Amino acid sequence: MATILDTITSPAQLRGLSPEQLEQLAAEMRRKIIQTVSANGGHLAPNLGTIELTLALHLAFDAPRDQIVWDIGHQAYPHKLVTGRAAKFHTIKQFGGLSGYLRRDESPYDAFGASHASTSISAALGMAVARDLEGKDFNVVAIIGDGALTGGMALEAINNAGAMGHKLIVIINDNDKSISDNVGALHRHLGNLRASPRYRKLRAAAKHFIEDIPVVGDLAAEVAGRTQRSMKEFVLPSKSGVIFSELGFTFLGPFDGHDISLMVDVFEKAKQLDGPIMIQVITRKGKGYAPAEQDATKFHGPGAFDPDTGVMIKKVGAPPTYSDVVGDTLVEICKRDRNVVGITAAMAEGTGLNKLRAKVPEQYFDQGIAEQHSVTFAAGMATQGIIPVAAIYSTFLQRAYDQVLHDVCVQNLHVAFLLDRAGLVGEDGQTQHGLFDIGYLRPMPNMHLMAPKDENELRQMIYTAIYGVNGPVAVRLPRGAGVGVEMEQTFAPLPIGKGEILTDPAEADRADVVILGYGDMALVGKKAADELAEEGIRAVAVNPRWAKPLDEELILRLARGTGHVITIENHMAAGGFGSAVLELLNAHEVLVPVKIIGVKDAFIEHGSVAKLKELTGLTAENVKAVARRMVRSTVRG
Ligand SMILES: Cc1ncc(C[n+]2csc(CCOP(=O)(O)OP(=O)(O)O)c2C)c(N)n1
Q1: Number of domains forming the structure of the chain
Q2: Which one from 103, 399, 476, 526 is the annotated catalytic residue?
Q3: Is 442 a catalytic residue?
Q4: Distance, CA of 381 to CA of 359 (rounded, Å)
Q5: Is residue 26 domain-shared with residue 142, that is, in the same domain?
Q6: What is the 8-class DSSP label of residue 522?
Q7: I need a surface site. Which of 352, 428, 441, 567 has the fewest CB within 10 A?
Q8: Is 399 a catalytic residue?
Q9: Given 268, 371, 455, 457, which residue is catalytic?
Q10: Active site residue 355
Q11: What is the pLDDT of residue 579?
């Protein structure tokens, strides 16, 4: 049977629906999101919480003329569903399909692209100021979660917007959660606003208040006639006691973010007010799907699951993930050494640090979605003799470039970074691939860089980063499961700047080509070398372990001996491991052909990691093809 959702190709159509039809549409959207995410994986709980908010936004505002700016965009599936993308929704996050986030090149309704947190208010303020400069007249609305509000950029933008005074509507989608429980004093403040007796009193007085708010036309009377439930949710714009009011915003709320007509009234009212306006709406993460309501953290961004039971579909017997190894190793080390601490920027589950939170909570710190602060906080701890281990996704550490450089590296402080999700991450696409970290960290003096070939080596590298290095050090690790090797029980620090030969070392100096596969590409290089041997091409495969310092002695020797060098890395070709090798050969005037295999100068789309590796040439097949081309004329034996 055709659904209402099937008929919606533009948000303007929503205005023709009755309140009952809107409720039905919300239910259909919920079903669609649960069905799709249970099959594809994706963000679930955040999207189930924003369905009514989205409908109200598109009823009250006239997108794409009015600019609707979602922070992060992981909660914008409902927005996709009502902006002409319902028919393609089943392709979300799949190769060639819809993005899991918002993109200006995907839809005119996506006013600003994102996936990294806390950008919405800055972007919206920029739009509002541009609008006023050009003498135009449209609304700009930013929707930001209480979690994303912990990011420094959001606070910088509020500071700026409150003083500039331009008309701008900021909606706080307050569900009391980040991925884990939210943290911070501002979060406590929002909680107090929700609970304060002052607001309860104001709710009771809402009727008078609504009549008093100056609005255009007959809206006040119409609003006053609505149900008691809607009425009591209205509260006065506060003049004091609310931090955002003190900073120059008109503050409205809190309101029930699942009450469509109430929110439409509030947004209509906000349209009539001047200057920066902030509206707190309360939503429930996972709304309408019991397993997600009960465990919003688990259902924040699940893989495939059974929609009837909420049970995750897991591969049985899969090796531990690299993040699991981070968590287990840190627990082991922190238990025996009170000087070591783990730091996360709101990514306890993603980085494995939730294990540390559970087992050694006094040596665990969640600083919120605040990578810059987390890094300098770590630097401060390091000045006092603590060894901080900051576990941050490669893509999110991009935020803290200067903090790593200025606060950690210049002062040569011993901070260990564990860069999770380094390399291609797959379905999260463009903005989330960890393809830039070697490039941004390698030029920094004092920095040490490592990447493991497997999960056991990761364990030893974490130990080495903590006890074997005295200064800034970063270990990059890929997304997902390890390769299934045996885990050594004892720790042994790895020598700094020393790689290992993976093929027969006795044959290394007689080889035709050396393949240097960095990190998770080491075993790809080894596979290629083994298969090339069957074709009569002698290749020596090396696991370099370190991108900085390089194993200069080994690389120079093998480059000179073989006369052909191939490097491969799960990273941009520009500025990465291969570039380091080229710089080394250049410095020593070793003029041999070098082929760097890495990601070319483009942002990589979403799709499975395997598919993306194939597309970018990060495969043994490609290494073999390159090796054949390079050494064909010199094959011996
Ligand atoms: C800079 C940055 N760090 C970390 C993340 C990972 N991340 C994605 S969603 C999320 C939680 C956001 O919480 P909130 O804004 O409250 O939205 P909710 O999911 O609760 O709706 C985090 C930490 C990110 N997107 N960007």
Answers
A1: 3
A2: 399
A3: no
A4: 21
A5: yes
A6: H
A7: 428
A8: yes
A9: 371
A10: no
A11: 98
